[in-house]
Amino acid sequence: MPSPFICLEDVHATTQRWFWPNRIPVGALTVFEGDPGCNKSTITYDLAARLTSGRSSPLCRGSKIPAGVVLLQAEDDPASTIRPNLEAMGADLSKIVVHNPEHSDPITLPSGIDHIRKSVALVNARLIVVDPISAYSACNLSSDQSARKALGPLMQLAKEMNAAVILVRHFTKGSRGQNSLYQGAGSIGIIGLARSALQVIDDPNNAGCRLLVHTKCSVGPKAKTIRFRPQQINGRLGIEWIERVDFPLNNGGHADSLVNSPALEEAVDYLSTFVPGRPDGRKNGNGECLWSRG
Fold it and tell me: What pTM did the predictor assign?
């Protein structure tokens, strides 16, 4: 039987890859959190549309190699909301699979991980969205041990499939004034397992606008806050990404870093194309596969 320990000298070092530079890492869990109705789900639709149609991440330049999306969405109806919104945003619907809410066998974690794995392989998915995480867990997410049991297989799947995973959750009641890492519903184990976390909050300085604030990043420096505005796109709800802003989140949760300039984020987005990845993208002169900026 092999030893449960391994010599660190035998560990092969890797470079972190990004779905959205400095914000959403590949092969890891990212938490999206905020109050109900603050456009968390709309942001995930925007990201899905960009990936499937080969467009760059918000406020980044260039293009992506189109890839698929697995969407577990418990609060929006596929026919009346999900498809029309994604279609209006220019998504390639053939690259997106959605959990069927009418199926007699509901998907819950950790037991449903094989169903998710098959869906990822079906559309060559580079993005998995679980929205909200509480609807797809068979475990008590208020317990640290149970949360880790539910999300551990999903974290492993992200590594195996070189995909980014977004977990959506709401703020808890009465969480205002707390450290930002403790505002989301469920155990601290959820944010502990996540390598990155982003909060959606109202912009106090611009009516009608919201902020996407980076509250945690364990694999790099935090990215700058982004101001955005919900808007109508072809008669459906979409996102207008406006600008990066200096907006420190008080209560010890976040401080923007001057290291994360727009130029640096664009450079990371571009260079990530040339990191070796899965064997289904373009190849360089040596026959090595190129990693998609998705």
Answer: 0.82
For the domain 8-247+257-274, what is the CATH superfamily, name and number?
Answer: P-loop containing nucleotide triphosphate hydrolases (3.40.50.300)
Determine the average pLDDT of the residues in 4-32. 94
Through-space distance between the first and last CA atoms of the chain, rounded to whole angstroms: 39
CA distance 59 to 56: 8
* Alpha carbon distance 214, 194 (integer Å): 13
Computed from CA positions of residues 179, 184, 190, 194, in that sequence, does the dihedral angle turn out positive or negative?
negative
Angstrom distance (rounded) from CA 101 to CA 215: 32
Q: Determine the pLDDT at residue 252.
A: 37
Residue of higher predicted confidence among 242 and 266: 242
Q: Where are the domains of the chain?
A: 8-247+257-274
Q: Which amino acid is at 161?
A: M
Peptide bond into 153 cis (omega under 30): no
* pLDDT value of residue 259: 32
DSSP three-state, residue 213: strand
- Within 13 Å of residue 177, how many CA atoms lie on the same side as its CB? 2
Higher pLDDT, 205 or 258: 205
Q: How far apart are CA 282 and CA 18, in angstroms?
A: 17
Is the distance from CB of 142 to CB of 186 less than 8 angstroms?
A: yes
Q: Which of the pair, 285 or 76, is modelled with greater confidence?
A: 76
Size of the chain, expressed as the number of residues it contains? 294
The DSSP H or E segment spanning 46 is helix 40-53
CB-neighbour burial class of residue 12 (10 A; exposed 0-12, middle 13-18, buried 19+): exposed
Q: Lowest-pLDDT range, 164-173, 213-222, 264-273?
A: 264-273
Q: Work out the average pLDDT over 52-77.
A: 95
